[in-house]
Amino acid sequence: MREAINATTVDFLVSPAGREAAAELNASLPNDALDDAHLPRLLTELRRRFSPEQAGALAALARLRRRAATKFPAAERLFFTAEALEQATTHAIATHRAAWIDAHAPPGPVLDLGCGIGGDTLALARLRRVIAYETDPVRRRLAQTNAETLGLDDRIDFRGDDWTVELAAGRLPETAAAFADPARRSEGRRLFRLNALIPPIAVLLQLQTVIPALGVKIMPGVDDADIPPAAGIQFISHDRVCKEAVLWFGPLAGPHPEEPALSVAKGSRWAAVHTDGGWRTLVASGAPPPLGDLQPCMALHEPDPAVIRAGAFAELCRRLDAHLFDPQIAYLVGPADRTDPLAQSFRILELHPFSLKLLQARLAALGMTYVELKKRGAPFAPETLRGRLKFPPGDRSGVVLFTRRGDDRIMILAERL
Asked: Which of 14, 103, 220, 378 has the smallest C-beta neighbourhood within 10 Å, fewest atoms?
């Protein structure tokens, strides 16, 4: 099914007949009709009207559209391949990033280099004219179709050239800014170093000498030693997962729009976190966070992963009137009446040395019938312990956090705030 949407079938899918059939499937099928158990029956029915290749492509697209609903608000009308959907930027992130580029870049069009099926391209096109490069003909065709579906095709110039060749030949069009999405996989394997990206960081830095306002999407687990000194780096979190990072150069590493007094110029690190209340940001100053004691009745705060990657502990401590209880553990503690959207917070009930026997006794004493198991700095996966715990009857839920303070392994029994 992963290969069902390809150069052979994409022409059918984007034709009037293919679009009509895909829309019919999306409107009529219950979710379970697309699972593995029911898929053979669906394919048999589709093959009564379409060729086996077309039937497979329609079923694959229907499944991808259901999966894409968490990434794209108009997923039921858009076109994807499995790999391209996995790599595509979530709509909320793409919209946030497009607004950043529009706010800080000089006037003019934007280059989107490696546009895939158009996740970032479509968001940029709502604000600026876009010249989008994509060498893969299937992805480019689907991106064009997606732009047409959303009424944005007249704002985007799609090109199939290799932009690195155009750069070397001095043929890239003059634009106000560029956003590059280099490949972070090779032969199915993840790449972890910037010099292994396709194209590598050296080519991207060459691009920046031509177009100063540049953003480069990279892996959130990038080695700090690889980050170019001329770049600011933004770590982006959505649904409490640090999903990506972006290197910003030139004017795109400019003053922060929500906090104008703060500069996020080259060398800066900051977190952008999508919460129920919208986007929130925190710029790391590089100051060391305060250290202090750990006691029951305090609140324990687990920073959002993007805040942790940005190293903005001192800033979050200031917002929560909190401190670290161990310099190597990314848990903050402070007054029990303080919370922040950039952290998950828990009220500490008890502190104990690590002991499964003691944990079992305390869960029974507290009447906790279900607990989340979390860890930071513990040398095991907490869920491996669940089968060894017995829970008392009742309806109280809680949290057990396995961590350490210095060389001591400890467990913290808590409740969510």
From this structure: 103
